[in-house]
User: Fold this.
Amino acid sequence: MRHPHTNLATASSSNPRSRELRGNDKTVSIGSRKRTTKTRELIENCYRTVLETSSSAIMLLSPDSIILGWNRSAEAISGWITNEVLGRSYVELFVPKEARAPFMMKLAQVTSGKEVRGLKIPLQARTGSRTMLSWNISRVLGTHGNLIGLMAIGSPVIPDTGIEEEFRLAYTQLLTEARRAEKVAEAERCRISRELHDEFGQTLTGLKFDLSWFSKKLSQAPAPTDSTHLLNKIQAMSGSVDALLESLHATVAALRPAMLDDLGLVPALECLAATFQLRTGVQCALDVAPDVSSLELPSETSTALFRVAQELLTNVMRHAAASQVRMRLCRSVGHVTLEVTDNGKGIPNERATLPHSFGLRGMHERASLLGGHFHIAGSSRAGTTACLSLPIAGYGAP
Ligand SMILES: Nc1ncnc2c1ncn2[C@@H]1O[C@H](COP(=O)(O)OP(=O)(O)O)[C@@H](O)[C@H]1O
Ligand SMILES: [Mg+2]
Assistant:
């Protein structure tokens, strides 16, 4: 510590004797004056080393904030050298204007005997940059109890990055959980679809055969008197079974498009486009870039692409009043992208940018679960374009 008072290092307590006791009492009992001086020098050297090597800014101030001495860290943090600041006001040189009054108030409190702990006041360096310091300030008394000055120790406040890290971890855990839940849900859909197909499909098909057997029998001679009535009834029942079978197939396909597993993404999308066109009369084209067909996508990626295509086509059917839809599947560096464009009335801007409804939210969630992006935009003249882009590990530049 470079300061004009050589006894500072041994007298920084509010109790004038507390620091002295350890060194003095021992040495007095030894009884040699020479050894007392040596021990004191040793202790002073220790204190000086501690002060000089501390990473905190340590300074001795007068009650009205005149700098009487400081250590190397204070020099480093402030950007001023010792000779430039000795005898000048710390508050005027280093404390930002808005913090001067509170700082001076605390100095007055310390002077009157009250210690200050953890006072957060920034130090404004020579360059203008500010370092937030947490100050502990206490009185420094001489051997006779006289006030030498105020010892101010300012430790840099380290920003709490722990909270950020905790958020990051929690978000990663949430994503992992959501991904797991999505996988479980997909497996469950798969199971239900199989059960429905096997259980209901077979029973209904059996029923349909029985009905046609009855129908044949009744048509054969000799026919009962009311056979026409019975035949009409059977035909109506057969029609109901047909309708049920059709709706069962649609449900099974919606729960888990078997083709996605059996044939892969591209044929499943082709089938989706063809079914959409047949059902709605809206022209639906599918372009697949040649280098996409050969990609081996993980099942969760192709499922997400298929589900989003399904939802986007449903939206076109329900909201767009379009006459044409185009689906494009292509590949860029490390990504596979599905783009669906219609020439309808265009999604309103507020719906696209603040997706509160389940369909759009679901598509955003699917994308972020897999580390990808979903974007949708529309204009009343150009229709709507939606784009899902998902990362494909291990596929760099095409
Ligand atoms: N292709 C589209 N063309 C025009 N409007 C659309 C289109 N897709 C979505 N929208 C609008 O965005 C809204 C949100 O869509 P979505 O989240 O799928 O919910 P939902 O289909 O259940 O209404 C729709 O209600 C509709 O107003
Ligand atoms: Mg929808």
About this structure: The CA atoms of residues 289 and 330 lie 5 Å apart.
